[in-house]
Structure formats: structure tokens, C-alpha cells
Amino acid sequence: MAWKKHSKKISDLKDSNTQIDMTVRERLEEMAKELTDQDVAVSLEFLKEHLHLQKEDDDAVDELKFHLRLMDDFHYSVIADDTDQSIYIYFTKSRE
Question: pTM to 2 decimals?
Fold first, then answer.
């Protein structure tokens, strides 16, 4: 029964995922509130680690977009640093 060492309880996975989701949301809310409409962009590489985002750039940006949609007033934009081709994200507030 080799499969047993490769299994986890579903309830443990759900609890762990919920805890990660809450931590990510708190971190993102704090960051967005502080950086929105400021002259500051944050490295996507840092956000992947800090917000537990997907590893691929496009997937990470899509996941970030999903999280920000849950936070009504915040939006993001992407800007590249042409010196090293790295991606940065900055936050904006929705305007009515």
C-alpha cells in the first residue's frame, strides 16, 4: 500500500488551504492599501512568494487579478523593467 505515504486527509488540506487564503488576502489588502496610487511598483517575483501565487508569470498575474476582484476598490497594472525584463505590479483605486 505505497499510496498511503502519498495521501493526506481532505479536511487537513481544506483547513490548510483556507489558512493560506486568509493570509494571502490579509497581505494583499495591507499592501494594496499602502501602495495604491503611489509612485511604487512591486516585483512580480516578490509577489509570487509573498502572496503564494502561481510560479508562471501569466498564471501569477491571473491569480492576483482574481484576488483583487474580491477587493472592490483595487486594481492593478503591469509595467516591465526593460533593463532586465522583469515584471512589476502597481495598484490603483477604481475611479467613478
Answer: 0.82
Residue with cell 525584463: 85
% of the chain surpassing 90 pLDDT: 79
| 3-state SS assignment for residue 49 | helix
Phi-psi region of 74 (alpha: psi -120 to 50; beta: other; left: phi over 0): beta
List the helix and strand counts (H, then E) for the chain.
3, 3
**Each residue of 52-78: pLDDT tens digit?**
999 999 999 999 999 988 887 888 999
Q: How many Cα atoms occupy the beta-carbon half-sphere of 83 within 13 Å? A: 1
Nearest one of 17, 52, 54 to 8, comparing CA atoms: 17
Residue 93 near residue 36, CB atoms below 8 Å? yes
